[in-house]
Amino acid sequence: MSKNEGINVKQSNIEEETSRFKIKPAGTGKDEESRESGITELPLEPRRRAFPIWLRLVAIVFFSAFALVAGAMIGYGIVGDGNVFDVFKVGTWQHIVDIINKGT
């Protein structure tokens, strides 16, 4: 087998693989020929998502903010033996910043 014969074999394999797909507009039914020949239809219309991407991003931001607030409340109120709602006071955070800056 020469070098060119190997290329021809690869090219014919690619043609066989791509010939299985027949592009048809989405929503058209399969006919008998395409079922029998094994031709797969590729949809041309974009997929309509039940949960749009922009809504996913909004949900991620919302749940991340919720997790941050809940974590601060649990960490300060329950683990730190403070009042849970003291997390929302500016004085609490000023005290934390003062402790951090005092050490440097």
TrEMBL record:
<keyword id="KW-0812">Transmembrane</keyword>
<dbReference type="Pfam" id="PF11772">
    <property type="entry name" value="EpuA"/>
</dbReference>
<keyword id="KW-0804">Transcription</keyword>
<dbReference type="GO" id="GO:0000428">
    <property type="term" value="C:DNA-directed RNA polymerase complex"/>
</dbReference>
<feature type="compositionally biased region" description="Basic and acidic residues">
    <location>
        <begin position="29"/>
        <end position="39"/>
    </location>
</feature>
<keyword id="KW-0240">DNA-directed RNA polymerase</keyword>
<dbReference type="InterPro" id="IPR024596">
    <property type="entry name" value="RNApol_su_b/EpuA"/>
</dbReference>
<feature type="transmembrane region" description="Helical">
    <location>
        <begin position="53"/>
        <end position="79"/>
    </location>
</feature>
<feature type="region of interest" description="Disordered">
    <location>
        <begin position="1"/>
        <end position="39"/>
    </location>
</feature>
<keyword id="KW-0472">Membrane</keyword>
<protein>
    <submittedName>
        <fullName>DNA-directed RNA polymerase subunit beta</fullName>
    </submittedName>
</protein>
<feature type="compositionally biased region" description="Polar residues">
    <location>
        <begin position="1"/>
        <end position="12"/>
    </location>
</feature>
<keyword id="KW-1133">Transmembrane helix</keyword>
